[in-house]
From TrEMBL:
Full protein name: STM4015 family protein
Top-level division of the source organism's lineage: Bacteria
Source lineage: Bacteria, Bacillati, Bacillota, Bacilli, Bacillales
Pfam families: LRR_6
Record SUPFAM superfamilies: RNI-like
Annotated segments matching region Disordered: 261-281
Biased amino acid composition, Acidic residues: 261-273
Classification via InterPro entries: Leu-rich_rpt (IPR001611), LRR_dom_sf (IPR032675), STM4015-like (IPR047722)
Length: 281
């Protein structure tokens, strides 16, 4: 696999170098035709310049990257740009421009739009953010991804963009929605208990090998529903890492007979106001 990461540091940004310049330069090199994985990091002033120019450039240059199968837009650490400050845009044109794309990862949800699209070959979709808007959830749930195997969504908190409810999240797991899905990550959520309770006996569990409810505010309330679910018992792996479960609940999981990650226990304060997902700002 040929993988390249493009990123603009502060000095380059001050010099006026733009990500579209780096993309055009790559497109004119032999490596462009062989590229299978492209990672786009900080595009320079990502907290004030959105990703629309990148989307336009990638769409325009689509024929120059014929083997592109994996794309990550927004791969930057907090020292470059806090996740909630990353300015995204409407990334829907990417799906049309790259019909052979198999994996798409997006970091940052400010300004993010995903219209309902059809893509015959996408297998993985991940959105890493501090808060995911219900309009984005609707765009995903209304999309047609018949080959999608992995869906990983950081749902986050309302202060940083999550303006939906449990019902908005549950539209993603309606029967027949994603027929080949085997990994479902509804993680980093301030309503993790509600999600866990709703998923405990959901039909979608019958097709999953991995359920990922990590990085959120899961407590014994949600864990109890999962522990009592026969469908959960059939999972190959359950990820509950970073949680607010009690020692007693963790011991019960240790004897549950399934592979489950209960690492990174947080202080299980009784006050709900003091429970936070891992990634917010």
């Amino acid at each position: 696999m040929s993988e390249i990461k493009l990123s603009i540091d502060y000095e380059q940004y001050e010099e006026g170098i733009k990500m579209k310049d780096l993309l055009e330069e790559l497109a004119n090199k032999p490596e462009g035709a062989e590229l299978t994985s492209l990672i786009i990091g900080d595009w320079g002033g990502s907290y004030e310049n959105d990703s629309s120019e990148i989307v336009e450039t990638l769409t325009r240059l689509k024929d120059r990257f014929p083997r592109l199968r994996k794309l990550f837009i927004g791969d930057m650490g907090f020292e470059e740009c806090e996740v909630s400050w990353i300015m995204q845009s409407n990334l829907s044109p990417i799906f049309t421009a790259y019909p052979e794309l198999e994996s798409f990862t997006i970091k940052g949800s400010t300004g993010l739009e995903l219209e309902p699209v059809k893509h015959a070959k996408l297998q993985e979709l991940a959105i890493i953010c501090g808060g995911l808007g219900k309009h984005v959830l609707a765009g995903i749930s209304q999309a047609e991804f018949p080959k999608l195997k992995k869906l990983e969504l950081y749902l986050g908190v309302d202060e940083y963009g999550f303006d939906g409810s449990l019902s908005d999240v549950l539209t993603l797991i309606e029967p027949g929605k994603f027929p080949e899905l085997t990994y479902l990550g509804l993680k980093n959520s301030e309503i993790e208990d509600d999600i866990a309770i709703a998923l405990a006996d959901a039909p979608i569990l019958d097709q999953l090998h991995t359920l990922d409810l990590s990085l959120g505010t899961l407590t014994d309330k949600g864990a109890e529903a999962l522990l009592n679910s026969a469908k959960v018992q059939n999972l190959k792996f359950l990820n509950l890492s970073y949680h607010y479960m009690s020692d007693d609940m963790m011991n019960r999981w240790a004897n549950a007979g399934i592979e489950v990650d209960t690492s990174e226990q947080q202080d299980a304060d009784d006050e709900e106001d003091y429970r936070y997902p891992l990634l917010t700002e």
